[in-house]
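Incident log, structure service

09:12 report received: a user says their structure output differs between two submissions of the same chain.
09:20 pulled the input from the user's history:
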Amino acid sequence: METDDQEAMFRDAVRRFVERDVTPNAQKIEAGEEFPQWLVEEMAKLGLFGMVIPQEYGGVDAKLTTYAAVMEELSAGWSSLPSFLNSHGSVSGIITQYGTPEQRARYLPKLADGSMRGAVMLSEPDAGTDLQSIRTTATRQADGSYVLSGTKVFITNGERASLFLVLVKTDPKAQPTKDGISLMILEKGTPGFSVARLFDKMAFKHVDTAELLLEDVRLPADSIVGGVPGRGFGQLMSTLETGRVAMAATAVGLARSALAASLSYSKERKTFGVPIASHQAIQIHLANMATKLAAARCLVMEAARVKEQGGRADMLAGMAKLYASEACLEITGEAMRVHGGYGYVSDFPIERMYREAPLYVLTEGTNEIQRTIIAKRLISGDGAASIGIY
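09:34 re-ran on a clean worker, output below:
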């Protein structure tokens, strides 16, 4: 995309899609067992799977602020939808930025049109946040190929994705450790690669979360992203800011829905002969929810703007993810209070939203990690000055 008008048109098209096809059906889809493939196909038609991919490969090449706005819109309709896109966007972004010309030509067009869906294989049973402690190895063979062995857990879209970026140690003895870590491209169907199990979760049941096994998986040397081993950790870290902004925007979308549902319910539900919106106690909840929502959105868009313009955004992205996810958790809790007993039953969407909200404080780096990142920048770098504290 090249102009602000085009970006606005794209956002408007997504909003119309959500209002027409998603919001009216979200509760029904959530209650059913069938995977909503038709929604995924509509998202592909809109170009959503190609948002971060250059136009020369069939993508949209949207700005990060637009990407964040789209993630919010999708989440406001049904918070599972962004989960189909976020890790896919990370795969697309890494291959776009770091892939060899051959890797970009081979994979980006298929990622852009949604015929390939991407997922990132990072976490392991004994390595969650501390990715340098992963145990999955890629051992080089005499013919130059690599044999991968290990287990990855909590992989979003692990069953339905068809293209994976897997974080491995190509040199377990490297010092520093990060210099021995690589990202490798793995296609579904490769011998030795399998789904061990799917996790049963308290929410997001239509988003598959898998444990994946790598049992002597052989990959050619040109499967390493960028073609040079030992650069995977840096490649991954450079994309985390975008992922955290996207996750924060998703939390804002869910919080927006919770507020909208609470406003609607409080105007219709009556006690003592008047709508409960007339009671000061309910008004306090609504005011708190709206204020937190507005602040969260502003922080998300500021982080997106700084990143988009090439500035350092690790602290801002961490702040956005931290604040938006905590605000979402609080807003859905207040929405439950507004709805009273009705909020606890599945007839109303608040019950679902209340179960979904905790995910955002855990994923894309826990909020404890975000606080650590923010504090380190404040203490040792130019973090305070960058946000105008002094």
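09:41 both user submissions now match this output. Likely a transient worker issue. Closing.
09:42 reviewer note: The two ends are 37 Å apart (CA to CA). The chain has a mean pLDDT of 93.
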